[in-house]
């Protein structure tokens, strides 16, 4: 039969051939090959390549993926397999199953045992944003999940070989539902282990009686008494702030919160580490840790379905009761907070933190490190009580209002920019994250307080390390971690809690890179530090210190912290050009 001339085809004609087209695609044929195959099979259906591309776009079907995207997908999948997590990925705005990744690698001639080494050698920056998810269980998968991994793997291979186009679209539909309802489904698998570890039934019904207003008064009274007793006995010292148990607690909680944006299983691993330190804190810590606890309650607000903070309070109540320490002021503060509902507790914690800040300010002065740390925690928490979309609108309003009235101080303005970046980060909008972090870094250079300037710059580097890693640029992310550690060590001191945190986070990052087969080039850090000079040396300019030399100088000898040239802040930097970090 002679072929009919090419023409525009109706939606019905396309739908009739959809299963055939998808089957050809499943077999690994390129789009050009599919067009030729349709030409051979059907005299009355002969679309051009442009027509096929347009129709596949309308169907929401991805064409073939880019090599860097698949390489990053292989690394992410392998990383999650170590914690027994199955993975479905969203590359750009398209869903990609493990079967699709396997078919891509098969077309490339890459065997399963060589996938990790192949991915490690693909170092180009991916063009797309890749998001990992845990696939929801289908009816068939819910039965198969009881079998071992090898049996499950074999079943998946046989299923995929005989799967129809309809069943694949059903699977994608299920995944879409999983993303539409993230609060109820995304975290469930990760939360289960956490809840099983830290749910003590005997603690759930500890509070009965007084109303919330009375509880607030009780919490304030006990907070005041805590501070009075604290200063009466001995002024708190920074050495106490760096106790191992306290660092384990704050690091675990902060890193857990941070990874919720990126990798949920790892987030709950860190929350577990933070909780595991509570036993030592209650028994061994030589001063109560109310400021640090309140900071966590202020800054780590999560979804109500996964109220990590309520679990934290209940676990502490249980420990104080177990050890017969119910006369402690901190116990009474926690007990009062537990009696309140979620919203009232937020307001109460902010009042308590302001109360503590006032005591520290009066007794120790504005320039004391602990006073600054508490004020910093208060500043960061201002916008985290709102849902992300509302917070973004409010923050933009604050920025616009300041452009007219100029009534916001520079430190607050930096905070607004960073909070905006964090909001956009939660939405995976990396372009806006970079815009606001760049603005925050630029504003931070104008801060006169070395403490606040360092705090802002370190926070900027922490966020940018995430951005670069999400782009697949691990070396640039490593440069930001090195910069964060160096700036914090010099500006705040090697024993400061922020320095300890970023050092720990950098170690985690390096370990993760190693597990993914990524080799990081350790940059040489050159820091410009101004020293007192003799009159005859006045024209010699600032001296440069290498990273190795920094250990020879105490904090009192470093008058001005080094600066990183703005042109090297956020772009990709080749290893040989990493002296800026």
Question: Would you write up a description of this structure?
Answer:
The chain is mostly helical and 581 residues long. The chain contains 27 helices and five strands. The strands form two sheets. The protein has a three-stranded antiparallel beta sheet with strand order 2-1-3. It has a two-stranded antiparallel ribbon with strand order 4-5. The termini are far apart. It holds the Pfam family Clr5. It comes from Orbilia ellipsospora. Residues 12-62 form the Clr5 domain.
Write the layout of secondary structure elements.
Blueprint: H1 11-26, H2 31-41, H3 49-58, H4 67-81, E1 88-91, E2 94-96, H5 98-107, H6 115-120, E3 130-133, H7 139-144, H8 149-162, H9 165-180, H10 182-185, H11 188-198, H12 212-233, H13 238-241, H14 244-259, H15 264-276, H16 278-284, H17 290-299, H18 308-322, H19 329-338, H20 342-364, H21 369-380, H22 388-405, H23 410-426, H24 430-444, H25 450-470, H26 474-491, H27 497-515, E4 526-529, E5 543-546
What is the CA-CA span between the terminal residues?
70 Å
Q: Mind describing the biggest β-sheet?
A: 3 strands, antiparallel
Strand order of the largest sheet: 2-1-3
Please, what is the average pLDDT?
A: 67
Question: C-alpha Rg, in Å?
Answer: 28 Å
Organism: Orbilia ellipsospora
Protein name: Clr5 domain-containing protein
InterPro entries: Clr5_dom
């Amino acid at each position: 039969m002679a072929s009919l001339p090419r023409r525009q085809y109706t939606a019905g004609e396309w739908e009739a051939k959809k299963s055939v087209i998808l089957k050809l695609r499943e077999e690994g044929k390129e789009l050009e090959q599919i067009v030729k195959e349709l030409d051979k099979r059907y005299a009355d259906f002969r679309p051009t390549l442009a027509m096929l591309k347009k129709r596949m776009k309308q169907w929401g079907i991805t064409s073939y993926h880019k090599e860097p995207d698949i390489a990053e997908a292989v690394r992410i999948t392998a990383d999650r397999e170590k914690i027994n997590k199955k993975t479905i990925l969203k590359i750009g705005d398209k869903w990609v199953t493990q079967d699709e990744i396997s078919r891509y690698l098969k077309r490339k001639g890459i065997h399963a045992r060589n996938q990790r080494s192949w991915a490690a050698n693909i170092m180009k920056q991916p063009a797309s944003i890749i998001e990992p998810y845990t696939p929801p269980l289908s009816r068939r998968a819910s039965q198969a999940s009881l079998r071992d991994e090898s049996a499950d793997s074999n079943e998946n291979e046989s299923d995929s070989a005989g799967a129809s186009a309809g069943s694949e679209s059903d699977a994608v539909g299920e995944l879409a539902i999983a993303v539409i309802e993230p609060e109820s489904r995304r975290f469930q698998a990760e939360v289960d282990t956490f809840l099983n570890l830290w749910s003590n039934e005997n603690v759930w019904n500890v509070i009965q009686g007084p109303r919330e207003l009375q509880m607030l008064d009780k919490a304030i009274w006990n907070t005041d008494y805590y501070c009075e007793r604290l200063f009466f006995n001995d002024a708190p010292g920074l050495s106490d702030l760096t106790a191992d148990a306290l660092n384990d607690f704050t690091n675990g909680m902060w890193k857990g919160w941070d990874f919720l944006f990126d990798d949920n299983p790892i987030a709950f691993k860190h929350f577990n580490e933070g909780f595991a330190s509570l036993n030592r804190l209650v028994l061994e810590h030589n001063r109560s840790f109310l400021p640090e606890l309140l900071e966590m309650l202020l800054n780590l607000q999560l979804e109500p379905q996964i109220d990590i903070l309520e679990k934290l309070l209940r676990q502490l109540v249980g420990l104080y009761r177990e050890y017969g320490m119910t006369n402690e002021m901190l116990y009474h503060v926690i007990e009062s907070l537990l009696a309140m509902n979620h919203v009232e507790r937020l307001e109460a914690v902010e009042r308590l933190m302001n109360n503590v800040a006032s005591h520290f300010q009066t007794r120790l002065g504005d320039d004391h490190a602990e006073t600054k740390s508490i004020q910093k925690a208060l500043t960061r928490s201002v916008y985290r009580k709102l849902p992300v979309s509302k917070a973004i609108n409010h923050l933009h309003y604050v920025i616009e209002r300041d452009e007219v009235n100029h009534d916001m101080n520079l430190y607050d303005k930096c905070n607004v920019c960073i909070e905006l970046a964090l909001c956009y980060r939660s939405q995976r909008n990396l372009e806006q994250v970079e815009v606001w972090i760049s603005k925050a870094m630029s504003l931070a250079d104008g801060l006169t307080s070395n403490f606040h300037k360092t705090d802002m710059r370190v926070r900027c580097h922490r966020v940018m390390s995430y951005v670069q890693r999400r782009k697949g640029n691990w070396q640039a992310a490593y440069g930001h971690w090195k910069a964060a550690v160096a700036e914090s060590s010099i500006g705040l001191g090697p024993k400061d809690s922020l320095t300890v945190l970023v050092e720990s986070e950098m170690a985690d990052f390096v370990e993760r890179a190693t597990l993914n087969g990524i080799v990081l080039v350790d940059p040489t850090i050159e820091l410009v530090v101004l020293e007192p000079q003799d009159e005859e040396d006045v024209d010699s300019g600032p001296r440069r210190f290498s990273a190795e030399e920094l250990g020879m100088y105490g904090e009192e000898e470093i008058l001005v912290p080094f600066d990183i040239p703005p042109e090297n802040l956020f772009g990709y930097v080749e290893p040989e050009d990493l002296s800026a970090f």
